[in-house]
């Protein structure tokens, strides 16, 4: 068994490598040969501490990702979130690798946003609105700035001090954008791309604020009850996600599940767009929505990449 520590996986991952790994994962997710099994979302001994298990398999890979959220950790000098990838040896069923991947998970989530935006957003998109000022929002901005000619960023956050801190961190990472701290309405009315990266359980903006041609990515809904986007926007948008059967259970589209299952709304896996089996944006004024609930195949492909670059020898 190989073990890759958090420090090593962090040193190996990048936005470029995460983009390629996640793109492969999203294409695989839309194929008949891959399986993504229902996510398990549970609580620990202390009910405020939660963890999730996301598992899947392809003809080459099988395994799972364990994600945890311990809200009191910052007071102890530790991050709230952690992530561990477990790859199963296909030859014998034993654990082939255990990979600490908390930082890699942030790259992986942002990469899904970037892969979708690369085919759904207008190529000339210059203005991004980001809802949230946490760690994941930083990664989302960096991933999108790498693939699109972004010039302006509107940050929407409940706490202005955190928004200012977010701006400082983003600039320190070398992302050169004209940054504004804005209200939700100001941001949406000017945005070419709207990205939400929060744990919200209520919509963060109104559908009427969204301009024709906008691309929207909901990155935070990964459990029942979470919601960042106004359902009203779906009536005039083209809808996409990482995996439809999961998205309608724990993602943004759980809130319109009946309308999707009845055929009133059409929801397509982004992998079908990447393969050219489904159209994405057709007209300049199309509004596109991508929901990322996060699927196990993303973690397996990220894990495979990290394993291929690791220098760690197997344990005896």
UniProtKB/TrEMBL annotation:
Extract the Pfam families matched here.
Answer: OCD_Mu_crystall (PF02423)
Q: Which domain of life is it from?
A: Bacteria
InterPro entries on file = NAD(P)-bd_dom_sf, ODC_Mu_crystall, ODC_N
Q: Which GO terms describe its cellular component?
A: cytoplasm
What family, per the record?
Belongs to the ornithine cyclodeaminase/mu-crystallin family.
Q: By what name is this protein known?
A: Ornithine cyclodeaminase family protein
Name the source organism: Bradyrhizobium hipponense
Q: What is the lineage of its organism?
A: Bacteria, Pseudomonadati, Pseudomonadota, Alphaproteobacteria, Hyphomicrobiales
